[in-house]
Design a protein that fits this description.
It contains 15 helices and six strands. It is of the alpha/beta class. The chain folds into two domains: 27-111, Winged helix-like DNA-binding domain superfamily/Winged helix DNA-binding domain (Arc Repressor Mutant, subunit A, Orthogonal Bundle), CATH 1.10.10.10; 156-314, Glucose-6-phosphate isomerase like protein, domain 1 (Rossmann fold). The relative contact order is 0.13.
Length: 335
Amino acid sequence: MGQDYPERRHRENATLTTALPRPKRAAIDGQPGASFDPKTKILDAFDGLPAELRKAARYVADHPEQVAFESMRGLARSARLAPATMVRLAKAIGYPGFKDLRAAFQTHLQTRPQVPTQRAKRLSASHSTSRWLGAVQELIEEELNVVQEAAAAIRDDDLRHARRLLSSAKRVFVLGLRGMYPAAFCLCYSASAFSSKVTLVDGAGGTHLDALRSLSADDAVVVFTCRPYPTETLRCLEFVKGRGAIVIAITDGALSLAARIAALAFEVRPVTSSLLSSSIADMLLSKVMAQVLLSSVGASVIAATEAAESHLSALQIYGSDTAPPLKRRQRTRES
């Protein structure tokens, strides 16, 4: 199964790019003028595009501000593509030319939720000559922006849909590898206090697919993923797709592999100002999914929580800060 995936992490598996069900796009649909959203047009046409136009489509979808305000040649240069490729992409997804695609993105940016930022003020007011301090400040600002963008994109209808999917699922498997592992673990850890149907696919000893051995169409899989996609995540997604299980994706865009096989997808923009990968916004979505799952448990949540607390107490998992303090070792003076 794994041999179908190339070793290069940025490439996609062909078996997951054809005849895929369209996700309910939490970060795109439901906004004013959504039917004319250029990202939606890109997604609808993506499977039928040749390789070069698919590369252009992904870059355009990931950089809406650049498309809206930069010249076509500058955009093509940044994407490492020929300017003519951008024109061909615009026509392939239904626009007369690139100017019309740019205008559509300008309109899209005006209608999307606005996120306040202090980055411009801080950068202009800063007189620091230390580059690393500036890099730290930029990282903080972008992390906050990404979290705010993710929160602003969450719609009540999508939360209701997630609640229906999770409550009707016989079991819920949670997958998140490498940089996405903290978010996956957080969801499972939170849910363990009130539900026994949530399982973490942690892949200990290379056993990712083993944990999904009994997966069926009655189950749900919550997947956290972001480029570059780990090979094991791609293998698991192919397996999940073959079993017909419901997928809820927290991912980096509507064109990601996880989103394109999901019944529901939430978009989290990757942090780009640092070499360090981040899952802070994914942690927010993790807590949101835990709260949604909690709301679906019903009256049994009280008994389940009490049982979990009794178990932790019996095993003395946590200590008490009221215990007598430990005696400090007396230092002997060297002669």
